[in-house]
Amino acid sequence: GAVVSQHPSWVICKSGTSVKIECRSLDFQATTMFWYRQFPKQSLMLMATSNEGSKATYEQGVEKDKFLINHASLTLSTLTVTSAHPEDSSFYICSAFDGTGENPETYEQYFGPGTRLTVT
Amino acid sequence: GQNIDQPTEMTATEGAIVQINCTYQTSGFNGLFWYQQHAGEAPTFLSYNVLDGLEEKGRFSSFLSRSKGYSYLLLKELQMKDSASYLCAVVDSNYQLIWGAGTKLIIKP
Known about the structure:
The complex is a heterodimer of chains A (120) and B (109). Chain A is mostly beta strands. In chain A, strands 2, 4, 5, 6, 9, 10 and 11 form a 7-stranded mixed beta sheet that branches. A 4-stranded antiparallel beta sheet of chain A has the order 1-3-8-7, with no helix packed on it. Chain A has strands spanning 4-7, 10-13, 19-25, 32-38, 45-51, 57-58, 67-73, 76-81, 90-97, 110-111, 115-119. Chain B has strands spanning 3-5, 9-13, 18-25, 32-37, 44-49, 53-57, 60-65, 70-75, 84-91, 97-99, 103-108. Chain B is globular, with a radius of gyration of 13 Å. Chain B has no helices and 11 strands. Classes of the chains: A mainly beta (120), B mainly beta (109). Chain A binds chain B through residues 1, 34, 41-44, 46, 91, 93, 95, 99, 101, 104-105, 107-114, 116, and chain B through 30-31, 33, 40-45, 48, 50, 85, 87, 91, 95, 97, 99-102, 104.
């Protein structure tokens, strides 16, 4: 199956600093990538949908100025957590698919391994 | 609104069979996915159903009834490594993926 990588796997940062997380599709072109956040013992929460070459669509309650998303190419999307605070500590997961809307089965999302962010 | 319901937690015995149910109410339907997620890891794909009926894949099977808005994931010959959360997700009419909260499956020896 398709492979999605994420970097870094884990990061510890101090409160007030910014952290960038990269998501790459390694063997396919991803027109759309998704960013999720998952708190302990909870399900995935979609933060935003990132489309190559256009602005990301953020879910209600997600601050777009705090979570900056850039999808500059068909294989790379980045999430930058700006001015991170301890409450931003979470497991951040990206996923990608190359679905066109014509074949829903292609909407299988390929997940990256996740990035565990700890803000001290 | 859109809603997907799954039991929060289930417990089963090693070697047994368990069925995890998922009911959904979404604006349109373009298929249903089941994913497995081990603690601290990203989800991995298990199955996809878009037509009514049972899809079998090894120890895992997935069933769909579109008229009832219902699916289940059946796990046979349970192994300890099957302890994980199982996520049900539906593709709606806008081709958006709507996620259930997941079912945590605990396997006991």
